[in-house]
Amino acid sequence: MSFETRPLTAKPRTGAGKGFARRTRAAGLVPAVVYGPHLEKPINIAVDAKETKAAIQTPKKLNTVLGLNLEGKQITVLLKEFQLDPVSKELLHVDFIDVRENEQVKVKVPLILTGKPEGVTNGGILSQIRREVEVWALPAAIPEKIEADVTALKIGGSLHINEVKLPSGVKVKTAVNFTIAVVTAPEVEKVAEPVAAAPGAAAPGAPAAADAKAGEAKPGDAKAAAAAPAKDAKAAPAKK
User: Fold this and answer.
1) CA angle in degrees (0–180, nearest 5) for 106-107-112
2) Which of 37, 174, 180, 220 is 20 to 30 A from 126, comparing alpha carbons?
3) DSSP labels for 99-160?
């Protein structure tokens, strides 16, 4: 397997601090550092911002293997982390990790679902749980992406990482067989049922009954009853 790198010129950096960093950026350079298990100590460098962005404009993006040319010495690296200005989006700082041709490195690779699930054909909904996966691979074997076929998924079915066919030389080191995608049943919209009226109750909007039921008081009945004397009441005897 050939081991190709994208060239990137680097300069040694001796200064530090915010003032030095501002002057470095004003010159079109970005403060950077190279670290790794094979280095005695991190190497402070400066790289051209535009060249750095151009160097990773490949299908592998951040997983592009770079060849840093530092004063005639080439260091093979991967761009591990970077900081951007929140407003201008310009590079503020870059971290590179030193890699070796015959040693696997840990990187994150985009995860792409392929095929139309059987469950989706039957009305289900496909949900992708993971959009990238962390893998181990030799620098030259780092894939652009990992594809996962979901054609056989039925409603209620799910796909896990252990079921995905990985490219040659690529491994996933995890004790958890995590879920990548699921197909769920569509939500059924519930229609509110009309509330049944209680026995004897008038239906909403129905006119009132012509005659009130016996025993039901009408407006004004109480006053009339209080004013009228009782039919069978006897006259009270006069006091002597």
Assistant:
1) 135
2) 174
3) --TTS-EEEEEEEEEES--HHHHTT-EEEES-SEEEEEE-GGG--S-EEEE-TT--TT-EEE
Mean pLDDT on 11-37: 82
Identify the three-state secondary structure at position 60. coil
The answer to whether 138 and 167 have CB atoms below 8 angstroms apart is no
Helix (H) or strand (E) holding 18: helix 18-26
Report yes or no: 68 and 75 within 8 Å, Cβ to Cβ: yes
- pLDDT value for 128: 97
Per DSSP, the residues of 143-209 read -S-EEEE-TT--TT-EEEGGGS-PPTT-B---SS--EEEEEEPPPPPPPPPPPPPPTTPPPTTPPPP
Handedness of CA 97, 100, 104, 108 (dihedral sign): positive
With H, G, I as helix, E, B as strand and everything else as coil, classify residue 70. strand
**Nearest alpha carbon to residue 95 among 137, 57, 134, 62:** 62
The whole-angstrom separation of Cα 38 and Cα 103 is 11
> pLDDT tens digits for 183-226?
999 876 666 666 665 565 555 555 544 444 444 445 554 444 44
Least Cα distance to 99 among 212, 234, 5 occurs for 5
Cα-based distances in Å from 13 to 24, 31, 123, 206, 216: 9, 8, 60, 90, 100
Cβ of 36: how many Cβ atoms within 10 Å? 19
- As a whole number of angstroms, the distance between CA 79 and CA 45 comes to 13
Q: Which residue has the higher pLDDT, 224 or 139?
A: 139
